[in-house]
Amino acid sequence: MLKPLENRVVLRVKEEEEKSVGGIVLTSASQEKPQTAEVVAVGEGKTTNHGTLISPVVKVGDTVIFEKFAGTTVKMDGEEFLILKDSDLLAIVE
């Protein structure tokens, strides 16, 4: 499994519906990039210049909304993950 460093978070991006509101099937090229994901791993946090550790506010299992073009996509064991900084997260879905 991936273990993120510092203030990075590993996400499993959720698959979005492949149909439009009107029921039209969309090709993968015309679909927008999904913006919700499940947190699968969290780094320890970022250390400030004064030595204080700032821990990420998300935890494993949270569902989050993230910036549209944020992060780096990696493939591991046939599954795709997104690694990004916790500052690229916009909200936790409750």
Automatic annotation (TrEMBL):
InterPro entries: Chaperonin_GroES, Chaperonin_GroES_sf, Chaprnonin_Cpn10_CS, GroES-like_sf
Pfam family, one: Cpn10
GO molecular function, one term: protein folding chaperone
Keywords attached to this entry: Chaperone, Cytoplasm
Key word Chaperone present: yes
Predominant cellular place of this UniProt entry's protein: cytoplasm
GO-annotated cellular components: cytoplasm
CDD domains in alphabetical order: cpn10
Places the protein is found: Cytoplasm
Described function: Together with the chaperonin GroEL, plays an essential role in assisting protein folding. The GroEL-GroES system forms a nano-cage that allows encapsulation of the non-native substrate proteins and provides a physical environment optimized to promote and accelerate protein folding. GroES binds to the apical surface of the GroEL ring, thereby capping the opening of the GroEL channel.
The name this protein goes by in its record: Co-chaperonin GroES
Organism: Lactococcus taiwanensis
The encoding gene: groES
